[in-house]
Design goal:
Oligomer: single chain
Mean pLDDT: 88
Helix content: 25-40%
Distance between the termini: 45 Å
Radius of gyration: 17 Å
Strand order of the largest sheet: 5-6-7-8-10-9
Strand content: 15-25%
Number of helices: 8
Structural class: alpha/beta
Order of helices and strands: EHHEHEHEEEHHEHEEEHE
Bound molecules: fe (ii) ion
Shape: globular
Number of domains: 1
C-alpha cells in the first residue's frame, strides 16, 4: 500500500546534537528521499540561537528534497525570537497555533501546530510571562476547536506540539516534574477532537515513546530520547482518498492561518521551561 512518509524529530538543540542528526538523516537516506513531510516539534536550536538552525535546514533540504518542512517553536526558540526564525528561514512552514493543509496523491492532510501547554508553568515562566496560564488554556482551546473543524472537513489531521500532550509518553522522566512537561487539559482536548496523529517532543528521558488516546496515535519524537529521527508512515487507505481521486501532489494553498481570536502570545519574554 502507498504510504505518506514523515520524518519527524525535535530537541536537536543545534549545535548540541547536530552531528547526530546529520548521521541519522544519512542512515535513513531512502525514507528521507521519499518523505513528503518533515516535522520539527520544537527545540531544534539551543538557547535561542537563531543562526544554529541554518545547518539543520540545509542538511534537511539536501536529504529530504521532496518534503515540506513544518515546525513549531519549543521553549528554546524563545518567544521574542519567533519573528527572526520566520524571517530567516522562509523554507520552513512555522506553525504557531495555526495550520496548513495540503494534498498528496489524493490524501488530504492538515497539520496543526502549537508550542503546546503544560499543567504548571515553571517558576521562570510565572515570573517572566504574564498570564501564562491563560496562554496555555487558549492554546488548548484553539487546538480543540480547529482540529475538530478540520476533522469534520475530512482531513487526515496531524497535531504537532512541543510539550507533551499526555503523561503517557513522558514515562521515564522524574514524576515530580511531569506537571512541567505535559498537559492533562491537552490530553482531554485530544480525546475530544480526535486528531489522527500527535507528534511532540520536549521529554528527553522518556522511555515510553508512543501511546494511544481514544484512537489517536501519540508519538514522542525527542531526538535525545530516541537517538534517532522518527520515521512515520501513514497508509493511504482508500477511505482517506479525496473524492478527486489519486493524482500528483497538488498544494491547496497551504497558507498558515492567522490567529483569528484570543489574546496574542506575550512578547518580550522567553518561554524557558527552567
Ligand atoms: Fe523543550
Amino acid at each position: 500500500m502507498e504510504q505518506l512518509v514523515i520524518v519527524a524529530t525535535s530537541d536537536v538543540h543545534s549545535p548540541r546534537y547536530l552531528m547526530h542528526y546529520m548521521s541519522a538523516l544519512a542512515r535513513h537516506s531512502d525514507d528521507c528521499t521519499a518523505a513528503r513531510l518533515v516535522v520539527w516539534a520544537g527545540d531544534m536550536v539551543e538557547r535561542g540561537r537563531v543562526s544554529a538552525l541554518r545547518p539543520v535546514v540545509e542538511v534537511t533540504r539536501r536529504r529530504c528534497p521532496s518534503a515540506r518542512i513544518v515546525a513549531v517553536f519549543g521553549n528554546e526558540e524563545y518567544m521574542d525570537r519567533e519573528n527572526e526564525f520566520v524571517r530567516r528561514y522562509p523554507q520552513v512552514v512555522w506553525l504557531n497555533d495555526t495550520y496548513i493543509t495540503f494534498e498528496t496523491r489524493g490524501l488530504r492532510i492538515a497539520v496543526y501546530g502549537t508550542r503546546g501547554a503544560i499543567d504548571k508553568p515553571t517558576p521562570w515562566q510565572r515570573r517572566h510571562i504574564p498570564g501564562i496560564e491563560r496562554v496555555y488554556a487558549e492554546r488548548v482551546r484553539r487546538l480543540r476547536e480547529e482540529v475538530k473543524r478540520l476533522k469534520s472537513q475530512g482531513y487526515y489531521v496531524i497535531a504537532v506540539m512541543h510539550y507533551a500532550p499526555t503523561r503517557l509518553t513522558i514515562e521515564g522522566e522524574d514524576p515530580s516534574i511531569w506537571p512541567y512537561m505535559a498537559s492533562l487539559a491537552m490530553e482531554a482536548a485530544i480525546r475530544d477532537a480526535k486528531p489522527d496523529l500527535v507528534i511532540h517532543g520536549h521529554a528527553h528521558h522518556a522511555k515510553r515513546l508512543e501511546a494511544w488516546i481514544n484512537g489517536t496515535h501519540v508519538v514522542n519524537v525527542a531526538f535525545p530520547a530516541r537517538g534517532d529521527v522518527t520515521i512515520l508512515r501513514v497508509p493511504m487507505s482508500r477511505a482517506a482518498y479525496a473524492e478527486a481521486g489519486a493524482g500528483d501532489e497538488s498544494s491547496t494553498g497551504g497558507e498558515a492561518q492567522p490567529a483569528a481570536t484570543g489574546s496574542p502570545p506575550p512578547s518580550g519574554g522567553s518561554d524557558k521551561s527552567g
